[in-house]
Protein: NusG domain II-containing protein
Amino acid sequence: MKFFKKTDLIIISVILAVSAAAWFAYQHSFGQERAEAEIYYYSELVETVALDQGIEKTFSIPQDEHVVFHLYADGTIRFEESDCPDKVCIHAGRLGTVGQYAACLPNGIILKIVPVNGHHEEDVDITVGN
Structure:
């Protein structure tokens, strides 16, 4: 009794190869690009943070001091603390690649990673996952 047919293995291999190629293409196109974080409070841009490597700090925005961000020395940023009930924003983890985002919806705050050189029509708006 065979668990897989030969054609099943070929199809799975092709799917994995295409997925790996797409991931490498994405990383090559957007993974190495200089980025900055934009912090929005109820759809209004309130702060832009340069994701320069070597700088580490913890800060909040004046509009909601109960939400704390942490900028890491490796050029990533995350929600450190929040008074929201579900803490989904904190569990989003570190962000550092253009197109990544995290949101604290109860507090109306969105953290979005964008390219330093501005937005272009062909840029990725948002990516889902890590």
In short: Residues 1-32 form one domain. The chain is about 25% helix and 35% strand. The mean pLDDT is 86. The radius of gyration is 19 Å.
